[in-house]
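Continuing the series of single-chain predictions for the mutant panel. This is the parent chain; the variants come on the following pages.
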Amino acid sequence: MNILLSSVGRRGYLVKYFKAALGPAGQVWGADNSSCSPAFTYCDGTAIVPEVKKGHYPQALLEICRKNKIDIAIPLIDPELEALTSQVKTFSEAGVMLLVSPEKTVQMASDKYLTYQFAVANALPAPQTFINIAEALDQLTVGALTWPVMVKPRKGSASVNITTCYDKLQLEAAFESTPEPMIQEIIKGTEYGYDLFGDRQFSPISVYCKKKLAMRAGETDKAVSTNEPTLIEFGRKLLSCMELVGPADVDVVVDKDGPKLLEINPRFGGGYPCSHLAGADFCRKIIAMRNGQTLTPDIGSCPEGVCMFKQDEIICPDWDILS
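Parent structure:
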C-alpha cells in the first residue's frame, strides 16, 4: 500500500507515524509545491505539485497518484480540503481513497460563522458571533455581550488578522479593515484541543483531548492529554453531529460553564502528536479503512497526563537532489 501526504511541509513526524503503521508493506510519499519541504527527508518518494489555489491542482494531484500507484491521498491544509472535497468520487474511480469529508462539512468548517451556526443548531455552546456591527452593538447595549470583543476573518487561519476591540471606534475600524469579518465574544478560560475521528459511514470512532500549554504561530506547541469526562462527552456529542471522514482538529475554550466551540478543521492538526502519543494512532485507522475493515470505537480511552513538547530539528538534505 502506498500513501501520499499532500502539502506535507514540516510534518516529518506524520510521515514517520504512517511509515510505522505501514511497516515494510508500503511506501509513504510526500507532495508539496516546494522541493525544500523538510518532511521530504523522511518520505519514500516525493512529488512537486502546483499551488493549491491553481485550478488544475486536483488533476495534478490525481496524476501523481495514478503514476505512483497511490492507494490513499491525505491533504493536510485547509485550502486543499475546499479544492478536493468535490473530487472524492473521481479519485475513487482511479482506485485512490481521498481522505476528505463531505462538502457540507468542509464548507461549515472553513467558515467560522457557519461553524457558529452549526454549533447553535446542534445545541453546542459557542461564543456569541455576529456578522454585522449593529447586532453586536445591540447586544453590548443591553449587556448580553461585554467589551472587549474580537474581530477576525470568517475564513482566517493561524491566528492572523485578529483584533481585540475595546470600544465602538475600534470595532468599526477593525471590521472595515478585516477581510470577510465577523465579531466574536471573548471567553476567558483555558484552551483545549480535540483530535476526532470518523469512519467512512461518519460513525464516531475516536475522541482524544488535550490541554494546550503553549502555542506557536497559531499551532499547538505544547500540550498534555486529559480524560476529563465533561470534555470527552462534549467531543463525543460534537463528533456525533458531524459528517466526518478521518481526522478533525477542534479547538474549544473552557470557562466556568464548560467547553465552548471555537473552530473545526477536518484534517490532521498541529497538536495531533499529543493524541498519537496517547494511543490514538489515526494512521492505522486510516489504513484499516482503506482495507475495508470495520473500526472499533475507542471513545473514552484517552489517558490522562501524556505530554507533547515540540522542538526544532536540523536536517541536512542532499542539495544536488533538491536543486
